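Encode chain A's predicted structure.
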Amino acid sequence: MKSIFYLSITAAGKYIGAGLAVIGCAGAGAGIGIVFGALVIGISRNPLQEPKLFQLSLLGFALCEAMGLLSIMMAFLILYS
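Encoded structure for chain A:
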């Protein structure tokens, strides 16, 4: 009789792989925090450069967010393919 907790090796590997793929979201969150922390420091040091610094910070935010979304996409690809 099979247990209700029975998993095949391939299913267990999928869950482990998806969990490892989602670790990239933590890196994206840390990167976003660093970007906006640097923005606050940069504006406090040189307020006249605020428009340029804000544009660069939005670019950094977009790149960090894209990496987080790619890691979630990889986790879904691992789980459902």
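Residues 50-79 form the longest helix (30 residues).
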